[in-house]
Amino acid sequence: MVVKKGVTQDSTNKLILVCDDVADNCFFFQTLLEMEGYEVEIVESGAAALAFLESKIPDLLLLDVMMPGMDGYEVARRIQNNPILQILTILLITANEEAFFRKEPDVKVAGVIRKPVEPDALIGYVQAALQLGHYL
């Protein structure tokens, strides 16, 4: 398995993987983040995110909690159980009130963002997560 990590400190070359099963959400995140100079890749399922991560590790994963098949918590667990992927910083995103307040002690994420997301808030979370990693 060949794995590459984003390389530079400025947003222009930071790679963000967005995993959300709703196309409109993906379009919103991609448009906003690309306007800020980030490189964005989109996947629409947990399985697709794990497949993407077999070849490249992004600087940040924006991960929807409520997805069919495999929810965001399970995706995060699988990532964190892989020694190569443990360096990945994850921000969870959810519209579900219960999921927003739910604590999963075995899942370590930089934060949980509630949908609908305000553009300035999203950019703030992304910048903080990229700077502070898992310690947000």
Task: Please state roughly what percent of the residues sit in beta strands, choosing from under 5%, 5-15%, 15-25%, 25-35%, 35-45% or over 45%.
Answer: 15-25%
Q: Largest sheet at a glance?
A: 5 strands, parallel
Distance N to C terminus: 29 Å
Portion of residues within helices: 25-40%
- What CATH architecture label applies? 3-Layer(aba) Sandwich
What is the string of SSEs from the N terminus onward? EHEHEHEHEH
Q: Could you say which structural class the secondary elements and strand pairing correspond to?
A: alpha/beta
Summary of the model, kept short:
The chain is α/β, with parallel strands linked by helices. The chain is built from 5 helices and 5 strands.
Question: What does it look like?
Answer:
The protein is α/β, with parallel strands linked by helices. It has one domain (11-135): Response regulator (Rossmann fold, 3-Layer(aba) Sandwich), CATH 3.40.50.2300. The protein is 35% helix and 18% strand. The protein has five helices and five strands; from the N terminus they run E-H-E-H-E-H-E-H-E-H. It has helices spanning 23-35, 46-52, 72-80, 97-101, 119-132; strands at residues 15-19, 39-43, 60-64, 90-94, 111-114. Strands 2-1-3-4-5 form a five-stranded parallel β-sheet, with helices on both faces. Strand 3, helix 3 and strand 4 (90-94) form a beta-alpha-beta unit. Helix 2 (46-52) packs parallel to helix 3 (72-80). The chain is globular and about 35 Å long. The relative contact order is 0.17. The model is unreliable at 1-9 (pLDDT under 50).
